[in-house]
Amino acid sequence: MILCHMVDNKNMRDDSHRKPRLQKIGVFTSGGDAPGMNAAIRAVTRAAIANKLKVVGIRRGYQGMIEGDFIPLRSADVSGIIQLGGTVLRTARSNEFRTFEGRQKAWLQLQKAGIDAVVVIGGDGSFTGALTMSQEFNISFVGIPATIDNDMYGTDYTIGYETALNSVVCAVDKIRDTAVSHGRIFIVEVMGREAGLLALNGGIACGAEVILIPESKEQHDELKRFLDKGYRHKERSGIIMVAEGDEPGGALKIAEQVRREHPDLDVRVSILGHIQRGGSPTANDRVNATRMGVAAVDALLDDQKSIMIGIDDGKIVQVPFNKAVKLNHSIDGDLLDIQRMLNI
Amino acid sequence: MILCHMVDNKNMRDDSHRKPRLQKIGVFTSGGDAPGMNAAIRAVTRAAIANKLKVVGIRRGYQGMIEGDFIPLRSADVSGIIQLGGTVLRTARSNEFRTFEGRQKAWLQLQKAGIDAVVVIGGDGSFTGALTMSQEFNISFVGIPATIDNDMYGTDYTIGYETALNSVVCAVDKIRDTAVSHGRIFIVEVMGREAGLLALNGGIACGAEVILIPESKEQHDELKRFLDKGYRHKERSGIIMVAEGDEPGGALKIAEQVRREHPDLDVRVSILGHIQRGGSPTANDRVNATRMGVAAVDALLDDQKSIMIGIDDGKIVQVPFNKAVKLNHSIDGDLLDIQRMLNI
Amino acid sequence: MILCHMVDNKNMRDDSHRKPRLQKIGVFTSGGDAPGMNAAIRAVTRAAIANKLKVVGIRRGYQGMIEGDFIPLRSADVSGIIQLGGTVLRTARSNEFRTFEGRQKAWLQLQKAGIDAVVVIGGDGSFTGALTMSQEFNISFVGIPATIDNDMYGTDYTIGYETALNSVVCAVDKIRDTAVSHGRIFIVEVMGREAGLLALNGGIACGAEVILIPESKEQHDELKRFLDKGYRHKERSGIIMVAEGDEPGGALKIAEQVRREHPDLDVRVSILGHIQRGGSPTANDRVNATRMGVAAVDALLDDQKSIMIGIDDGKIVQVPFNKAVKLNHSIDGDLLDIQRMLNI
Amino acid sequence: MILCHMVDNKNMRDDSHRKPRLQKIGVFTSGGDAPGMNAAIRAVTRAAIANKLKVVGIRRGYQGMIEGDFIPLRSADVSGIIQLGGTVLRTARSNEFRTFEGRQKAWLQLQKAGIDAVVVIGGDGSFTGALTMSQEFNISFVGIPATIDNDMYGTDYTIGYETALNSVVCAVDKIRDTAVSHGRIFIVEVMGREAGLLALNGGIACGAEVILIPESKEQHDELKRFLDKGYRHKERSGIIMVAEGDEPGGALKIAEQVRREHPDLDVRVSILGHIQRGGSPTANDRVNATRMGVAAVDALLDDQKSIMIGIDDGKIVQVPFNKAVKLNHSIDGDLLDIQRMLNI
């Protein structure tokens, strides 16, 4: 069974064979905001216009779809947004959309606005919603993965992850200044309730002394080892990276335990929180968002539905929504080995 | 009574009239680390060497002084540090120094190392320690104010404050991306246990909707007003800046209260913590640290003691340690007025 | 004669005594763009609205005034711009405004739009234009100084200078990485045709080995000294900062000369150019732009005309346009002395 | 023929089967400096020490090898360098190494120091030198690709490219502020004498209006089209990205031509130059440099020689020096199509 298939963007430019069925598409962002969403909105809008489609921006996710909170998007409307964090179309949670009645309202709004197909920019929850709706009503969705957790099956890459990773690294570099100056241990909590990618790669990039991630329970022995014998000299400092979801309570709980067992140590906690989520996207987040935005329009023009655009080994692929579920990239065990080896 | 007097740096270059009494000086950092401390260490070291003095770096503050943790500093040793956060001489707390016995040990170590005078880079607590020691033993101290709180009497400027302020602004700009995207209220806690300068100026610079600082209790009415009638539309977001010490519990406690009174609002907390303290210093923090470092050596060459170097209206001044106590710059009421006026 | 006088912002809030003459003001940016201009536009707009005035944005400077390129500004229109570089009202040169006919057209446009008074955000050239026009026609101008050169008489501070300074420092920090890695000399050209402030303070902040500025010709001897004897060791690198206008040809010409006299040296040139001009403004640039924007509206409400708002020793002052000419802040000779002393 | 083969890092940890032949390795950086080189030096050093090897740092590239400019590297010596730009081991050109006599001297120095094998961090020229020397003398080299041009056959990734790309994007974002504010066209020249990757991806990421790269001559028609009809409205601004080597003379020459043909346009040039080369490496540059550093030591322990470590589809591979020549990654034509489509 083939889960995803590579696609040739060239088709889009030679679209003589296409039926002119598609006339107006919608685009919206859903779930947590991620840097690069605006670059994707811009690419979807302009690629659609270049292909003679009309574009409607749906504001505040599925909730805005239900309420008919729509705005027309012209080329100039997406000018100067490629470098902005957040999402100009905003995003929101919608409990109403979880009901059939809610989805029906949403469909009626799309009908009323003449929207033939929709590009949804978000995570696996957003795609599940799209799949459900497209099975109940006659509307096509194509998805673009955008989440700072990078935890989607079928794509090496989700929009926003790389920017978040660099925000983590930049913040920990600053914290290291104080850790070294005072000979302190900092327990730094980063986002990632079920996925430790940000903590793992952020920890490697910052030379963290210990990395605690939900995917590997052995790391707690590492922490013990570090504290017991590794941390003896009065000048030595340390950064312990913790993924948000490693333990309920996270960094604060671990700090409590460390202080109990090692009352002599000077231990501090830093919870990076929402500074990981905003900010101007990195070059790759912008380029990949742009490529995926163009590919999403291309897929709609090719009469595709219920697929997510992904990137695999640098190339654009299409993955059925059904397969594009939240699935942690198996953590590269080598990286943990490397971290342990270099922490000497 | 004149608290501080302006000084003419020119004297330093024409030092023919000086007795060659001073031969070796020490320099150390004390208290919390602040960006720009390294620029000050570099300036002290090179200004001293340019004046034919030997320089000893005292590591880990007063504790290192007690332990004789000294290293010679040559010009090359301070090369390439002007742009680094933290302090290459490290810093530490010392309970031992609070005792006479501790200070005696420290003095004996200085004696043994042939150190005639010392430049102390830190906050008011560090200067109080220096004053006590210089009154008990025959040793001169000159201070350079370095604290991100900018809460010293006698100087417009303490090293590190401006860098911290820009770190706050940079972080809140990112948080704003998410706040706007989701229509959320963020309560952002910044450092400043007794001084609200970081929260006030950071709040103005980020266009915060409400600023809560220890210096003004009326601001809580502002918060109430903002929540009660200002915050009605579903799209509106808000940043509420809180100085760390505004209330015991700070941002978390305020969030709890807001959620209790306004259960419909989507409220999040972000505690910026130690990312405010590190990082490469801003241009002004480097330039002023450099100027104060040179002026501190100049003061020692002029046989001064127990004074802090300060900057007043852009000019170097000297302030007796006795006067250079922690004293909050009275908050500029106009700034609060301005913030209220612009938040419409 | 008093050139400037301090003002009490408090008046603005107690404006019961004011005649309700003023009803609609214009605001525009003129000359080179400077980071913080948007913060000033926001403050002017909201302070005016808070005082029951209507606000019109004049686009593209005096040229837009002549063409009647006006847009109404409401509070929401200036939301989310405080952190943006450049100017949302744009700027332009206008030869037509230099003629009486041009200024007459501009005045008729203002008349037609019902604009009673105007806030001009720019440099000395912009203020001269405003002064001329206000003397010919019945219209009041108040100015806010914004130029990255910081070369205005009557104010310690012009909007954009500090951001530009930090952009210089950030760029030179990067160049230093390569200079040190290769043992190279870099000649770095920064903006400042007649004023060396950016080069001087940027050079101090980056630990530049030599600083060449138009205000001090002796510095060329410094360069010679540095190259002749200071630069001997194969590992030593150097940063030579040059203000754009130090010599016609600037950095390239100096590099040519250095290569001719020292063919053994590995010399490179970096012209920082327009990366000095853009970018998100620093905290101070935002706060001061905000304060001056509010003060400008206050001045108009106080029936002032032909004055520039300035900041002197941290306080708001008003300076007649006639006095607010381009005038280089006399370069602090101490800074050059310090630079020479520390470069050992 | 298999050019490269994937390797399993696990082997390194189970090295019971290895002969303890290797006892001391050297490591050096060569060619232009690239951000992330220090992360690679750190990883090589610590991975070697973790495998009971001694490590010698060879300073200033092949020239330092000839001169015996060696320093022992212990774990602590590479502490705190992972985040630094440039290279702490410095780099240099060596004409002497191009001669047999020079290489013989270098080999004798390695012999004398007891160095059994060497990790070379640099570009294709550095690897060619290593290959030549290893064929003449009994010494093994393993290479790590580090060049901001990302133009090596056999690896998707060279250290430093991603950081340079983000520096380009950050600089152009600033320039865009001024371009938009003034309605100006900026011609921005980025590095890449033979490879347009930085210009292409940087241009996509910044929404450049035209991208001129050596790999596609058709782009000059694009420029003509843009200037002829695209650029009509007085408010429209534009960024034209030019790879350094697109034409002799680069951006300045193009600007001259544009000004000649379109004297009405306000055209400026910005040559980004060496700010593209320095700075703190991005997260990926640090992580990949770390992975490749560990893999290089692993390869030496596996008795490999004359191979470059590469990354292919996210996995570590080994590529013979003979194949790892400078070869431009064929430019992704889709990206140029995308750029043209979105520039509407």
From TrEMBL, chains A, B, C, D:
Subcellular location(s) of the protein: Cytoplasm
Primary localisation category: cytoplasm
SUPFAM superfamilies referenced in this protein's UniProt entry, alphabetically: Phosphofructokinase
Catalytic activity: beta-D-fructose 6-phosphate + ATP = beta-D-fructose 1,6-bisphosphate + ADP + H(+)
Domain Phosphofructokinase, first and last residues per copy: 24-300
Pathway assigned to this chain's UniProt record: Carbohydrate degradation; glycolysis; D-glyceraldehyde 3-phosphate and glycerone phosphate from D-glucose: step 3/4
Domain of life: Bacteria
Entry keyword Cytoplasm: yes
Similarity remark: Belongs to the phosphofructokinase type A (PFKA) family. ATP-dependent PFK group I subfamily. Prokaryotic clade 'B1' sub-subfamily.
Protein name: ATP-dependent 6-phosphofructokinase
Name of the gene this protein is made from: pfkA
